[in-house]
Amino acid sequence: MEERQEVGTVVRGRKTPDRAQSAAAGGPLPGPRATPGVIDAGAKLPRTQLLILQAARHRFALDGYTRASLRAIAADAGVDQRMIAHYFGSKQGLFLAAVGLPVHPAEVLREVLAGPRRAARQRIREVLTRVLAEPTIYERMVGVMRAAAGDPAIAPMMRDFLRNEVVAPLTRLLDAPDAALRITLVGSHFLGLVFARFIVAVEPLASAPPADVAALVAPTFERYLFGGVTASAGT
Q: 36 with 56: CB under 8 angstroms?
């Protein structure tokens, strides 16, 4: 029987300038070749499956969905390529398994909504600081964004995933006028932040401490969630 490994939540840490510089240069990430994603504490996966997922996250982030090959992923993982089909069925199946979000959106929103409204901005700052400091965010979010933008087969899958698994449940959770618009505004702003900070590594944003970035954008996120969202709201 194959050994199973217990995987806890990855220890959070601050993104270093070396990571931003490496991303801007298009080179490999410093440090370990692949990083486990955020998995519920206590979850257990067969060791081979875990190795494949780690290698796939790294390879999709490095090469994008189209250029990443199953042969390269299998080689990175040190397994027979047939094991990918055994566990995931296809390249698309592997992609969907590998690029789970680095945070649980519903849990994040519940944390923001908990407590008095007057302290919402502080809670948003705390959540954003934690998310931006998450060491898995580069490989997981970059893989998602590159694939969705560059492959016509993946973009519809990502739209379906976001609509059904992110926007719909968060809209119900927020339970406010124009809730779907508010959620998509937060999501689009966050994706733009990820793009500038992690993919093109625009300085000084790329190297700014997560807490500083969170403090700057938290008021805007607060308005998206609780303020006016009409065209005249800011006038």
A: no
